[in-house]
Each structure stands twice: as structure tokens, then as C-alpha cells.
Amino acid sequence: MTWAKYGTEFFDQLVxxxxxxxxxxxxxxxHTQALHYLYSVESMEMIFxxxxxxxxxxxxxxxxxxxxxxxxxxxxxxxxxxxxxxxxDVFRQSLVAQMKKRDxxxxxxxxxxGSNPSAPVANDxxxxxxxxxxxxxxxxxxxxxxxxxEVPFPENLNMKTGELMEETNPWxxxxxxxxxxxxxxDQLRSFGSAS
Length: 195
What we know:
The protein has 195 residues and is mainly alpha-helical. The chain has helices spanning 10-15, 24-41, 53-56, 62-71, 88-113, 133-139, 184-194; strands spanning 47-49, 75-77, 81-84.
């Protein structure tokens, strides 16, 4: 699993890129989703087939947005594929760093388990058991989708401050004070004023 990394300038560059107003939102969304897709497939070439665009782009104007991204030079049209040009240095640096970390972690695990650090590593248990690798890898995901039951808010929760109100006296409508030290907001304010 990899994670997407954007420099602080990324969205500013998108906003300042002279996108057509009617395609501005669609182009920004499609471009960001393209980078997410490239992170997920770990593509150092930053190229994806045009037919894949429908797989990850959620905008109803993703095809027009892709043409607009080519027009402004953020993407290149390679015939049957697109190449993402904008943000490619940050993307590659991030992907290389993540791959190196993954390799360091594998080596560290091997050393911890007492095996030879130079021996090749299997993809966990899945490669050791025949006919299981494909089904296991297909079910592994970093998505946290599931059915979660909704937890109700306590009746004595002050919705403005997020603090619990005293339950013993219903006429007192103030947060419960604790002796846990200074308030977090006071700490943050004093931290900001110290510099």
C-alpha cells in the first residue's frame, strides 16, 4: 500500500493554471484521482491507458477534463494513453521513498525473525500456500469500509464545547471541570506566543 503525497503548492498550481471555468472542478478532481490511481499501481512512468480513466475518475466530465489537462500541459496525450506531467518529481520521490521503506521493513522483519537478510522475501503467507495467493491479495485493502453502528451522543454533551455537563445538578449548565492540567487550547495559545 502506498499513500498519496502532495506538495503545498499542488492545489495552488491547479487553481492558477487557467482551466476553463466550466471544467475547473472536473479537471482538478480528475487530475488528483489520476495521481491517486498511479500511486495505487505504483507507476513510475506515470502513464495510464485512456480506457482506465473511467475506472478511477468520478466526474461526469472526466473525458473533457482530461482534454483540458492536456491543453494546459499537466498531462500529455500519447494516443491510447495519458502521461501525467504535473507534479511528477514529487510523485516519483514519494513513491521511491515508500518502496525503500517497504524494503527496509521487510529486511528488518527477516532479521527479527532470524532468517537470512539477503534471502528473497515471499509476500507473507500467501506465497507459501498454493492457490491462495490470488484470493488473499484480492481481498487485502487499505479501505476502511464496513458497516458501523451509529453511537448516540451522550445527553449531557455540550455541543458547543464538546465537554460533558454535570449530571448531578440539571440546573447547572456548565462543563465539568477536571484537575487534569491546563486546557489544551490554553497550551496551544501559550505555545504560539512563545515564538
